[in-house]
Amino acid sequence: MVAAFLSQWRFASRQPIDKWSVATVLLCGFLLGPVAALLLAALGDSGGLWAHLVDTVLRTYVTNTLILMFGVGGVAIMFGVSAAWVISRYDFVGRNMFEWMLLLPAAIPAYIIAYCYTDFFEYAGPLQTVLRTSFGWQSPRDYWFPEIRSLGGAMLVMASVLYPYIYMVTRIAFRLTPASLFEIALVHNKSQFWHVGLPLARPAIVAGLALVMMEVVSDFGTVEYFAVQTITLGIFNVWLGMNNLAAAAQISSVGFVFILGLLGLELYARSRQQYVSTSRSQTPLPPLPTSRASTCACWIVCIVPLSFGFFIPLGVLLGFVLRSDVAANLRAIQPIIANSVTVAVVAALLIMVIAGFIVLTAAFRAGPKIRKLALMASTGYAFPGTILAIGVLVYASQIDAVLRAVSGGLVSSFLIASLGLLLLAYLVRFQAVGHGAMLSGVRRLPDNLMNASRVLGHGYVDSLRKVVLPLLKSSFLAGLMLVFVDIMKELPMTLLLRPFDFETLATYTYQFAKDEMLEQAALPALMIVLTGLVPVILMSSMLRRYR
Amino acid sequence: MKLLRYIRVSVMHRWLCTAFALLALWSAGPAAASDTLNIYSHRQQILIQPFLDAFTKETGIDTNVVYAAKGLAQRLQAEGAASPADVILTVDIARLAEYAALDLLAPVQSDLLTKNIPAHLRANDNRWFGLSERARILIASRDRVANGAILRLEDLAKPDWKGRICTRPGSHVYNRALMASLIAANGAEAAESWARAFVGNLARKPQGNDRAQAKAIFQGICDVAIMNSYYYGNMKFSDDAEQRAWADAVRLVFTNQQDRGNHVNISGGGVAKHSKNKEMAVRFLEFLTGEAAQQLYGKINFEYPVNPAVAPPAELASWGSFKRDTLPIERLAELAPQAQMMIDRVGW
């Protein structure tokens, strides 16, 4: 093992320095800056706070976080993978519509869905009111109803809006699985799903799952609203309650370690499972026709996640919007829509280009070390937004200081107090989303593709442009869409890092939602959803073309 | 198809325009000394806009605002001398103290501020100032709790209230300050045993915000709850009939009227250390403690004036006058870490 490592090391050091790898290393280093700033902050003195935390709340924080991570992950896989399977494998009435609709929950911010769900499911909500009138119950003591503000509630709510991360990449994976492999399962009378589809889609599923879990670890809005004591809630208590940012950074690092552990586990598991397809026929299998009963089953598989993630919250929001003065409110938020869309488009493109560059170099030019570094560079997602924003602030102020020194004071502040700060923050945070999408795309490519092109005398850039990139279009678009929607609804970093008087739909929604003024919050929230709809529809039509 | 292309072109056009506008905004960067006042606010924009409008109308000075609930102190710190911020506004003493502890505030010499604000509601070194008082009170069900059945905060620990109390989580800054006030009044040991008994009396897991507690009383889930008094006003005059019903279901109880008085917190502000417009910033703070603005606090958000010379608006006055706890407000921030640890220990 050691000998193998050493020989590999010697081999590596003899290689000429590759400019692509160097650029990637630099880029990853740049992206890791804010995370490094946080880890540095975590080295500060926590004033003996850990003993107190271990004695009191830490166990609850960790247990709840783990339960939530695996609960949400499980439900999201169930929703996402089953939906992706029926969409890619069966031909049923409404399939084309469901194919893109299933992505819609991604556009609903978790902090909004939490309010909507409470409104719908709580004692005074429509559901319980209907139950009470139909059964003649008088008070909450007369019957039992599951409490939505609970660990279980948080699981359902979060999984309902996060499953699209898994659905999206898994669907592409299923679609790109060569028909020949499914045919083998058919010949051997094995399940196409369990023996072929699922194992081959695993990298994609795990890439999506990693995003879901990072989102769970870093979420603050939902867990605060549902009063579920997770690590993130603890971070804020320690920071704002005990005025101890160092200890808060330390707890954030615990969450970060969870994620690293998960990523490591997956890397290890996968390192021993690789296959190279030499099959010439890469055509996907035509979808199976369905009987009436199986159409029904397909519909259920699609409608359940859609209802939880989209129809119920949309209904609640619409209910509020219709009660308000739509025209006047719409006029007020027009410039805000423009802000949101512009920032999201610019940042999403930037993220996808950088993520694409990193993933491609890591896959085709560099060794396993850079591959790991590339993965590391996308871990900003695992920190709560506000905490990561503080890391970004510290990092940006250092960059500005360097720029000031280099320019002799000509550039006084380049990033700080400008939109650049926000772009940097989005880049660091949502790199993970872009990385995941591109990586699952690259993993689907046969290894020998690039080799074949190189052997035939094409250069690296030429091979990328002519062979690899065209095959990655769908992954690029999928990632672009997810990142766009993510930025549209991003709240904590935007709130803290934006320039003066700069509102996005998310910040505008939040200032009302914070005080449960749902009537005023509903319209901008709805606009986030609707603006999210446009790229979803556009890109699914493009995806269909690249089928 | 033509239409589609037209839409695409016009959308692109609009995007480009906005993109350029944003670029311009970027290069404009942080403002140097100018005739615009830059404010970092922990108070929501909708709540301060009327003050800003009034200030601009009176002085001709324009304002810029960034609102965020958390992390603005770290932003100011990272910005250092390059920071464009002039004034900081917060909604509780803990955040003000955080700015002070990070040395982000400039000392201010203003006779007007000293005159308008009682000594226990401002910093000894004149770095921060209380601008309005927010009373944390009890609300009790009109139907199920007799008038006078509960008088003191300490009563919440009594067995009579077992399974009848609602509250938001203890780690919220308002409850943390309340806990700190109990430590200041009764000592750490008594405060902790109070908290333990209080948590034992809760009707449900601490959850939701203050408004949600009134709603819970309305729904019959509990009979007593802790709430900031201005929520009562906001619900009573809400556009939403449901919220008006919640307000109707409760009676306000100002606590500890026979002893130390009702616990109060402040919204406050200070001048940023690296402000390039310090004079203007002081003028803004002075404006906020003047008659017109002090009245506005009551009218917009049902908060009490700090200026003893200003009477609260009629609606506020109709809730009754009450004795306030005059503990130097700074103590709440000093005791906050200890209070948070207590809250962790008792599981509030």
**Helix count of chain B, per DSSP?**
14
Q: Would you identify the CATH architecture of the largest domain in chain A?
A: Orthogonal Bundle
* Mean pLDDT metric of chain A: 82
Structural shape of chain A: globular
| CATH class value of the largest domain in chain A | Mainly Alpha
The count of DSSP E runs of length 2 or more, i.e. the number of strands of chain A, is: 2
Report on this model:
The complex is a heterodimer of chains A (547) and B (348). Chain A has helices at residues 2-14, 19-42, 49-55, 58-89, 95-101, 110-121, 126-135, 151-176, 179-187, 192-218, 221-225, 231-241, 245-271, 292-322, 326-364, 368-376, 385-406, 419-444, 448-455, 460-489, 492-497, 505-513, 518-545; strands spanning 90-91, 288-289. Chain A is mainly alpha-helical. The two termini of chain A are 43 Å apart. Mean pLDDT of chain A is 82; it is low at 1-7 and 9-14. In chain B, 47% of the residues lie in helices and 15% in strands. In chain B, strands 1, 2, 3, 4, 5, 6, 7, 8, 9 and 10 form a 10-stranded mixed beta sheet that branches.
